[in-house]
Amino acid sequence: MRSIIFAEDVITVASLHRNAGAGGVFLATACDFVVGSGDVVLNPHYKTLGLSGSEYHTFTLPKRVGEDMANKLLNECLPLSVKKAKEIGLVDEVIEGDYMQSLKHFCKKLIEDEDRYQDFLWEKEDFLIENESFIEQCKENELKVMHPEFWDEDSSFHKLRHDFVYKVCPLETPKRLKDKNA
């Protein structure tokens, strides 16, 4: 993830052609641009697996959507259409129709104007130099929280992971979904 965030000599583009959960969404947010197919559904949260998250998400998510929206996404644990994700700034471009052709066109447009391309890279490099210690502190804070989630025997992660891997069906609709449909 760090390699993507700190790739100051290239423009990075994430392509969400299929649905994505926490890791996939946060891998995408590490890139400079996020493009998604119009029918994609995102689940940008870890909480339902008993995890707080990682992958520099405490830096990349608020950078894209702001602190309040980041907290809302991480705590409400609701699915999000790629169209809604664009409205809130999580996704830069939604593609309907011929996805691969449109994705190629999007990427070509990013580099067509040599001056704009070079300016983007210089601004990116300056930003990364200026914010490197903050970005690394985000990662360190994430690791401090995650360590007990993985290694504490009483962590809810172990049971939730088991249920996920073995496709154990819940006995009732999760409260977070009931409240939205009430």
Descriptive notes:
The protein is mainly alpha-helical. It has a single domain (2-181), classed as Alpha-Beta Complex (2-enoyl-CoA Hydratase, Chain A, domain 1), CATH 3.90.226.10. It has helices spanning 2-5, 22-29, 57-65, 67-76, 82-88, 99-112, 114-151, 156-165, 175-181, and strands at residues 13-16, 33-37, 41-42, 80-81, 93-95. The strands form 2 sheets. Strands 1-2-5 form a 3-stranded parallel β-sheet, with helices on both faces. Strands 3-4 form a two-stranded antiparallel sheet. α2 links the parallel β1 and β2. α3 (57-65) crosses α4. The longest helix is centred in the last third of the chain and has 38 residues, at 114-151. The radius of gyration is 18 Å and the shape is globular. The termini are far apart. The mean pLDDT is 93.
Index terms:
mainly alpha, 2-enoyl-CoA Hydratase, Chain A, domain 1, 3-stranded parallel sheet, two-stranded antiparallel sheet, 5 strands, 9% strand
Explain the layout of strands and helices.
Elements: H1 2-5, E1 13-16, H2 22-29, E2 33-37, E3 41-42, H3 57-65, H4 67-76, E4 80-81, H5 82-88, E5 93-95, H6 99-112, H7 114-151, H8 156-165, H9 175-181
Parallel strand pairs: 1-2, 2-5
Antiparallel strand pairs: 3-4
Helix pairs in contact: 3-4
